[in-house]
Automatic annotation (TrEMBL):
Source species, domain of life: Bacteria
InterPro entries recorded: Thioredoxin-like_sf (IPR036249)
Name used for this protein in its record: Thioredoxin
Length: 123
């Protein structure tokens, strides 16, 4: 198998799979910037995001995935109506939804805008 790209200095983004049971505890205690992403198996955009977002150079510390079909409590608390849906959390503070396209450029711009607003408590 031959690779045409070499990313020796690229920072790999951590990934976590969260559930109703550990979502709040994890987000409150994780340092840095987390992108919380609600997905489901039947959603083609979600599968694309799951495959491609970890490969992008994004200014965040981790991607936190949560399966919307299996975690109805979190879906209700966060007011998720479509998938995928993303939210920004930094150092336990909630910076709201990230309403952007699923491209690295759009996410980078959206993160900067979200993090420039006053934070709130987690839902």
């Amino acid at each position: 198998m031959q690779s045409t790209e070499h990313h020796s200095e690229e920072k790999r983004v951590d990934q976590l799979q969260l559930t109703d049971f550990d979502l709040d505890q994890q987000l409150l205690n994780l340092p840095g910037v987390s992108l919380l992403i609600f997905t489901s198996l039947g959603c083609s955009s979600c599968r694309w995001a799951r495959h491609h977002l970890p490969e992008q150079s994004l200014p965040l510390d981790r991607l936190c995935w949560i399966d919307a079909e299996e975690n109805g409590g979190a879906v209700e608390r966060y007011g998720v109506f479509h998938l995928p849906t993303m939210f920004v959390v930094r150092d336990g503070a909630f910076f709201g939804p990230l309403r952007t396209q699923m491209s690295a450029e759009a996410i980078v711009t959206g993160l900067a805008q979200a993090l420039a607003t006053p934070p709130d408590e987690l839902p």
